[in-house]
Amino acid sequence: MGKSITLLRFFLILFLSLSTSGAKEIYPQHKFKAIGYVNDFTVTGSHLYAASDEGVVTVFDLTSKKIVNTIMLEPVTTALGELQAARILSIDYLDGKILLVSIGKNLYRNVWIYEKHKLKKIISEDAKLTIKEARFIDKEHILLATFASEIMLYDTGEKYTKYKRHITQSTLGDITLTQDKKHVIMADESGEARILNVANSKTIQILSSQNVDNVFHVAHAKGVTLTAGQDRRVGVYQKGQRPYHLKSTFLVYCVGITPNGKIGIYSSGDDNKLQLFSIKKRQKLQKLNGHKTVVNQIKFINNKELYSSESSSYIYYWKLD
């Protein structure tokens, strides 16, 4: 009887292993080549905007898949009098406006809004801020997050900071907004992620049970938060349910999630593949094969299509089965 149970378990494990390893891999439908290494990108209904370390935003038409515009920041003059590219760290889009964060000559940040073919600086490096990411909240408000884990809400119409709050002593990993933009999820090197109220910066919840080291990236949709950790874990936090984590064989640099909150994805292994998984079933699905170097952004535009970028000039477009 004992041998029969052991044999049954063996064949069950073998079947599950073969089912997982034999899963069909997905390959990119298209590769967009931007000017410079891509640090961040955003996708609208008809265009892809890629921000690079060369101080250039490459604008692609998604129908023709061709470059239709470039936005170029002026080079920065260093203290030694040398010219260097104004590296762009962050990009966002709202109603025809493009929001950019670039590095100035003393490593402090400039914040820009590009609208109607005009580039306007709204926050100067003279403010001595080390902004890492900036996101539109609405037409007149942007959320800023610094490397020092400060959160700021800036009014672009009145040109003043509504609040500035130092959230934690740990270095910022990443931020992401909820779909209604009422909350921001902020992750840091401590392994924690915090859900904050955008209107007043108050902490609503601390997510701290699944990562024990630096969180590089965070994604959120429909009450589900995913974290990408240096500890090779993908943390999964679901509203009203017990959190869990998936283990990877390599550092997890990036995560993404479908808008319906049902399917997650993370960078998996040293071969730069992306692993899909069912959030509810905790089950690995297909892998996305095509990246040549470390993945730094993954963004779904719907439940079947996504874009991802790596530490190179390329952005990949994928379509799921």
Plain-language structure description:
This protein has 321 residues and is mainly β. It has two domains: 30-166, YVTN repeat-like/Quinoprotein amine dehydrogenase (Methylamine Dehydrogenase, Chain H, 7 Propeller), CATH 2.130.10.10; 174-296, YVTN repeat-like/Quinoprotein amine dehydrogenase (Methylamine Dehydrogenase, Chain H). The protein is 6% helix and 53% strand. It contains one helix and 30 strands. The strands form eight sheets. It has a four-stranded antiparallel beta sheet with strand order 1-30-29-28, with no helix packed on it. It has a four-stranded antiparallel beta sheet with strand order 2-3-4-5, with no helix packed on it. Strand 20 and strand 21 (224-229) form a beta hairpin. The longest helix is centred in the first third of the chain and has 20 residues, at 2-21. The chain starts with a helix and ends with a strand. The model is unreliable at 3-8 and 10-22 (pLDDT under 50).
Keyphrases for this structure?
321 residues, mainly beta, Methylamine Dehydrogenase, Chain H, 2 domains, 4-stranded antiparallel sheet, 53% strand
- Class by alpha and beta content: mainly beta
What is the averaged pLDDT score? 93
> Globular, elongated, flat, extended or rod-shaped: what is the shape?
globular
CATH homologous superfamily caption of the largest domain: YVTN repeat-like/Quinoprotein amine dehydrogenase
Major beta sheet, strand line-up: 1-30-29-28
Domain count:
2
| Overall radius of gyration | 21 Å
Total number of strands: 30
Q: Which runs of at least 5 residues are low in confidence (pLDDT < 50)?
A: 3-8, 10-22
Proportion in helices:
under 10%
N-to-C terminal Cα separation, in Å? Answer: 43 Å
Sheet of most strands: 4 strands, antiparallel
Number of helical regions: 1
What's the architecture of the largest domain, going by CATH?
A: 7 Propeller
| The CATH class of the largest domain | Mainly Beta
| Beta-strand fraction estimate | over 45%
CATH topology of the largest domain: Methylamine Dehydrogenase, Chain H
